[in-house]
Write a structure and sequence with these properties.
This protein has 146 residues and is an all-alpha fold. 75% of the residues lie in helices and 0% in strands.
Length: 146
Amino acid sequence: MGWDLAIADQIKRDVTTALKAGDRDRVGALRLVLSELQKAAKEGGGDEQAVLRRERKRRRESEAAFRAAGRAELAQAEAYEAGVIEAYLPAELGDAELDALVAQAIEETGAEGPRDMGKAIQHVMAAAGGRADGKRVSTKVKEALS
């Protein structure tokens, strides 16, 4: 994937490819994401990765809700869309990498207990550069500080 190009431009090209291939599910998922990216750009929120992470999170939450409600088909559709979105995001950090960032953050911020969690989490999130989910970071920091 060409990261030197705007993600939205890459998605537009992928929509065209999916249309030619007759992949209606992929076209639908990409168009939804593209519209969110365009809306964010108009509102001045130009961080495409943040938009993609938010949209992936929404799909994952919907998927869990549908699974809990016994709606497997709808859950599958949400999981598919989350997967399509994920392809445009940098790979998530592995546990070892994340643990190293947490240890570094604790050392650099001087965090010692639960009340210092916020400082450490902010530090890790900045260092991770969007490659780690906030919930995961929070859990790791909490474990490290307790």
